[in-house]
Each structure stands twice: as structure tokens, then as C-alpha cells.
Amino acid sequence: MDVNIHESWKPWLQDEFSKPYFESLVDFVKSEYKTHTCFPSGKDIFNAFNQCHFNDVKVVIIGQDPYHDVGQANGLCFSVNDGIKHPPSLINIFKEIESDLGTPYPESGNLLRWANQGVLLLNATLTVRAHKPGSHQKKGWETFTDAVIKTLSANKKDVVFLLWGGFAKKKVKLIDKSRHKILTSGHPSPLSANRGYWFGNKNFSQTNACLYKLGKTTINW
Fold first, then answer.
1. Where are the alpha helices (DSSP H) in 7-158?
2. What is the DSSP letter of 30?
3. Which residues contact 14 (CB under 8 A, 6 or more apart)?
4. Distance (Å, rounded) from C-alpha 215 to C-alpha 204?
5. Beta bridge partners of 132
6. What is the tens place of the pLDDT at every residue in 147-162?
């Protein structure tokens, strides 16, 4: 696994790359990609960082695992490539945007358009074995992505963190609430959404209201 991460992140994360846990993680990921089908493709593992540079981060959305079916994962949490059927969580995200902002449901599930506006779409685990959700958890990725969240918290100001579901909400302890804005909600998965924990959260209009107040450009969701 090559750590093909955008230059803007290197000064902040360089120390992580030389730690023993990260070296073990690289060995594990290389071996998995050699012996099994894994997602996303090798070049897209650090896509979230390559599409949203450190200085541009205004919003952080935290997911758990990449999608594990063929052709879905593209290195941005909740996102799929153009032409790929929208997974259930993404459908619910788009439905909430539709009702919250009155914008039409989009054709493409590729959230690259968000990343390019300063939304870091960060999965806690950056790789997965095909059809085996959670298969690359607890191998070191969470240590790395926790370090990313802590680095953003300590070295940036006024970032909006969107924590959806129990897993993401646990990351609240890594974020300095006096420096940043945290919005929480249930997870957009059907299980949570159908119980009333997702729809109506208005996180998208709330995010834009926060950005507007800070004098930042709002996100075109």
C-alpha cells in the first residue's frame, strides 16, 4: 500500500506514517489486497484526503467502513461512483437533503462534488475485504483516522463535524467543542432512519447556517 496522500496533509500526519502500528497496518493491507478482492481500489484508499486538502477542510463527515460490494467504494464515505445504484444510507441522505433544502434528488451518488467544496468524507476504516463488512477493522486504521480527527481539532478552527449514529458519536471525545461545531443525528441507514432517528435532522441547512455565520462559503449539497 502506497501512502499516496496529498502534500497538504503530510506535515500534519508524517509522524503517524513512521509509527509501528502504521507499518503493521501497511503490511496487513498489502497482504489483503494481494490475496483477496478488497475495496476501494489501491489508488483510492486515501481519496478523501486527495480530494479535500487540509487547508480547505470546513466540514467533516465520519463513516465507518467502505462499501464492500463490487464497484461501490471510491474512498469517500457514503459515496459511490457515477452510474452506481445508490446504497440505502445514501438514498436516505439525499432524501433528507431534498426535504431540508428543497433541492431535487441527485442522479449521481458520487460525493466528489462535496469533497471539492471542503467536506472531508472520512471513513474510520479505509479498506475492506469484498462482501465482508468490518473485515479490516481493529487493524490500525481507527488509530490513524482518530489521529486525523485530533489533528484537525487541534490545528484548525470552526470546522463543522457531522456525527451520525452511535459509532461516529463516540468520536466526540476527540474534538475540542470550544473550537468547533458538532452536529449529531441518528445514522442514515434504514434501520435507524425508519425508527425516526434520521429524517428531519436538518443537518445540511444547519451546517450551512454555521458556515454562513463564520463568513465561510456554504456547501452546495
1. 10-17, 20-35, 47-51, 88-101, 112-115, 141-155
2. H
3. none
4. 17
5. 129
6. 999 999 999 999 999 9
pLDDT (0 to 100) of residue 3: 87
pLDDT tens for each residue of 45-94: 999 999 999 999 999 999 999 999 999 999 999 999 999 999 999 999 99
Closest of 8, 200, 11, 217 to residue 96, by C-alpha: 200
> How many residues are listed for the chain in this entry?
221
Beta-strand pair 128-129/160-164: unpaired
Catalytic residue set? 65
Backbone φ and ψ for 38, nearest 5 degrees, come out as -130, 160
pLDDT of res. 39: 97
Least Cα distance to 81 among 25, 43, 135, 26 occurs for 43
Q: Name all contacts of 199-203 with Cβ < 8 Å and 24+ positions apart.
A: 199/92, 199/95, 199/96, 199/99, 200/96, 200/99, 201/96, 201/100, 202/100, 203/96, 203/100, 203/162, 203/164
CA 218/CA 61 separation, integer angstroms: 15
CB 153: neighbour CB atoms within 10 A? Answer: 19
Taking alpha carbons only, the member of 100, 146, 107 closest to residue 125 is 146
Average pLDDT over residues 119-135: 97
